[in-house]
Amino acid sequence: MKNKKRIKFGILIATILVVAIIGTIGVKKMNEPTEKERQIAFLKKHEEEMTEYVKYDSEHVLLKKYDVKEVTYNWQSVIEVQSMAFSPKTIAVEVSIFDGTGKKLDGFEIYVLPDNVKNPTEIKNIA
Are residues 99 and 48 in the same domain? Predict the structure, then answer.
C-alpha cells in the first residue's frame, strides 16, 4: 500500500517537473525576437545607408530623374526574397519617395543583401 502511494507521488512530482521545464523553455522562446523582428531591427539600424542608396544610386530614381528629398519605409512589408534559383536570398522592403513639398513621387521595393538573412549583421549590397 505504501509502495503504491510512493510510486504515485513520484509520478506526480516527475510530471510537475516536466511541465515546469517545458513551461520555462516555452517562455524563454517567446521572449526571443522573431526572424522578421531581427530583420526589421537590422534594416532600421541601416536606414541612413539605405536612404543614401535610394536618393543617389537607385536605378529607379536615376532613370526617372526624381529630386528626392524624403524617403519612408513600410517596415511591415519586410519579406525574404529569392529572385531566381540559386541566387542568394535578400530582404525586401517597400519604399516611398517624396519631393521637397511632401508630394509623393513614387513607391517601389529595394532589396538588401545581408551577410545572413536569418540573423543579419551587415549589408553586402543594396539593389
Answer: yes
